[in-house]
Amino acid sequence: VQLQASGGGLVQAGGSLRLSCAVSGLTFNGVTMAWFRQAPGKEREFVAAIRWNGGYRYYVDSVKGRFTTSRENAKNTVYLQMNSLKPEDTAVYYCAADWIPLSTIRTDGSYDYWGQGTQVTVSS
Fold first, then answer.
1. How many Cα atoms are found within 13 Å in the side-chain-facing hemisphere of 72?
2. Residue 36's Cα: distance from chain center in Å?
3. Residue pLDDT, tens place only, 26-70
4. SS3 state at 83
5. Strand order in the sheet with 67-72
6. Separation CA 124–CA 117 (nearest Å)
């Protein structure tokens, strides 16, 4: 199983980035995809998740209205569109995948499959 995250970079506050996570080696249809992030000196935190059919999406409060996650099952790819970026969004962003119940969707320990992380830096 491989999750390949990409799209990170350096952007000014107020700018946008789109992260992608390409998945191979597992049945993409049916799996929940999630994004987590870890800032220096902080624990990894849940950012967003999308259920297998795209019908249910979840976000941490701090990104609601600014970030959108989506998926293209035909391409085995999930996206995180990040708008109105703030310096506090600076972190390494990870994608994760697994078949998990809704009750644990925000828990990083619930996911067995992880991408390598992509750095997002937002300058003020």
1. 8
2. 5
3. 887 789 999 999 999 999 999 999 998 777 899 999 999 999 999
4. coil
5. 2-6, 17-24, 77-82, 67-72
6. 22
CB 86 within 8 A of CB 32: no
DSSP 62-80: GGTTTEEEEEEGGGTEEEE
**Hey, what are 64's tokens?**
């609601």
> Tokens for 90?
């600076």
Identity of residue 117: G
Average confidence (pLDDT) over 69-78: 92
User: In the structure encoding, which two tokens stand for residue 66, read together?
Assistant: 């600014």
Please tell me the distance from the alpha carbon of residue 54 to that of residue 29, in angstroms, as a whole number.
10
34 and 111 Cβ atoms separated by less than 8 Å = yes
Q: Is 119 helix (H, G, I), strand (E, B) or coil?
A: strand
